[in-house]
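Troubleshooting: if your tokenizer reports a length mismatch, compare your output against this known-good record of 134 residues.
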Amino acid sequence: MCRFYAEGHAFDYSEPWSIDELKFEIKKLIENNLGYDLSRTLDEIRPTYRFNESCQDTVPQAITAFLESTDFEDAIRNAISLGGDSDTLAAITGSIAEAAYGIPEWIKDKALSYLDEPIRDICHGWQVFTNKSK
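Known-good structure output:
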């Protein structure tokens, strides 16, 4: 939904949705169609959240971390702030946030700086490939 609507590809809208409209529609769709309860805030989740490898106790929290975010970095920080299986939470939240906000260049540059040259070359090749397919 983030890629489709945030980038203006929806057939029933001439303009891209605002981030607030997008978050409202995502929340409504997930609650209505998938049965997840997204009514709890991060502040309500945080005191009792513990490590849990099940999707039922990870995915809704990751989605909430995105829904309460203001940008990509904030989404990741929200997810990590919950504790528990924080790397999984951040991975799920980050995937959603990237589609909605994009990733700031400084974060991309910093992440790439940790990789050795052969892996950076693979990442560059993937970027070239995906840009050709657009």
